[in-house]
Structures are given as C-alpha cells and as structure tokens.
Specification:
81 residues, alpha+beta, 1 helix, 28% strand
C-alpha cells in the first residue's frame, strides 16, 4: 500500500443551474498528465448538488483555503539517502 495521493490539477470549472431539480451541476476541467496543456483538459462527469450541499461545499472550500494560506507553502519531502 502507498501513501501517494493521485492528483489531477484542475484548470477550470463550469456551474450550470438545473431549475427543474432546484440544483446546480458542477463540471471540473482537469489534466491527467504533466505533458498536457490547459487547452487539452479533460472534463469530469456532471456532479449535481442541491443548493444546501453547494453552500456546504463552498464553506468547506473556503475553510480549506484559509487553512492552507495560514500554513504557508511547503515542499513535499525529498528522497532519503
């Protein structure tokens, strides 16, 4: 088992209102390879959020951003000799 976290850098997102469901669809554009350029981004499935979930997600993202800002930048540990 590994502690590595698979990452796919986000390059953008789209939000679309779905009034019939009183919801919002979120789609994220992301890269899967360091060789890809932003204009080659892949698209996630459409994630559907009801408005309460969307507000909860927004608040959680703000808390995460605040925590990250307060910790500052750090580099991952390098190889050990």
């Amino acid at each position: 088992m590994t502690d590595e976290i698979q990452m796919a850098p986000a390059t953008g997102f789209d939000l679309r209102s779905v009034p019939a469901l009183n919801a919002v669809a979120l789609t994220i554009q992301y890269l899967v390879s360091p060789m890809e350029r932003p204009n080659q981004a892949h698209q996630s499935p459409n994630f559907l959020f009801h408005t309460a979930q969307l507000r909860e997600l927004a608040e959680a993202m703000i808390r995460a951003a605040d925590k990250t800002d307060s910790v500052g930048m750090s580099s991952p540990p390098g190889p050990s000799n």
